[in-house]
UniProtKB/TrEMBL annotation:
It comes from the Eukaryota. Residues 1-17 form the signal peptide. Coiled coil: none annotated. Belongs to the PMEI family. NCBIfam families: PME_inhib. GO terms for molecular function: pectinesterase inhibitor activity. This is Pectinesterase inhibitor domain-containing protein. It comes from Eruca vesicaria subsp. sativa (Garden rocket). Residues 30-190 form the Pectinesterase inhibitor domain. Pfam families: PMEI (PF04043). Keywords: Signal.
Length: 198
């Protein structure tokens, strides 16, 4: 009798969990689908969806919120990458040229962080439903700063060009900065999608 009760209880809990999962899936599927469809417009759609899908319920099919979230993700990654690269100044066996490239990269990433912060602040400054000259002025600033941040990230990578720079240090830094640059590129694409809706 105890085994039958246990089996029935397990079946009840399983059925309840499946029903809850279906309800949650239905509740958020439109929001998640919006993020997925929007990410298809970016250069790195899989990375975009991976980075932003967990925020779908907060984004709620709002292009502006999607652009803000993409910028916030890029800013967070840029901060982390700057810290990571900064720690590489003490990398074992670092050459003078590599050290100079790392120092330059830290500076570039600092600029990138600042520009992404400005972009996010400016985008948040827009009033919901705002249009007209003020809207386009704000959007121009957001696009310019985000593009400049992407340039900073690319410039960091350029500092490690050439065979003399090849090695583990370059690979480690490249992996982190490339991810930030891809996120920033996606954010810029989503900013453009938001702007195109006005």
């Amino acid at each position: 009798m105890a085994k039958l009760s246990l089996i029935l209880f397990v079946l009840y809990v399983s059925a309840s969990a499946i029903a809850m999962a279906r309800n949650l899936g239905e509740e958020y599927s439109d929001d998640t689908q919006f993020v997925k469809a929007s990410c298809e417009t970016t250069t790195y759609p899989e990375l975009c969806f991976q980075s932003l899908s967990s925020y779908a319920s907060e984004i709620k099919k709002r292009p502006r919120q999607l652009a803000e979230t993409a910028l916030a993700v890029s800013l967070s990654r840029a901060k982390a990458a700057k810290t990571y690269v900064s720690d590489m100044t003490d990398y074992k066996g670092i050459t003078k040229r590599q050290h100079e490239a790392v120092v330059d990269c830290v500076e570039e990433m600092g600029d990138s962080v600042d520009r992404l912060r400005y972009s996010l602040k400016e985008l948040k400054h827009l009033e919901e439903g705002e249009s007209g000259q003020d809207f386009w002025l704000c959007m121009g600033n957001v696009r310019t700063w985000t593009s400049a941040a992407l340039t900073d990230e690319t410039t960091c990578l350029d500092g490690f060009g050439g065979k003399a720079m090849n090695g583990e240090l370059k690979s480690l830094i490249r992996e982190h900065i490339l991810r930030v640059a891809q996120d920033t590129s996606n954010a810029l694409a989503l900013i453009n999608v938001f702007a195109s809706k006005h």
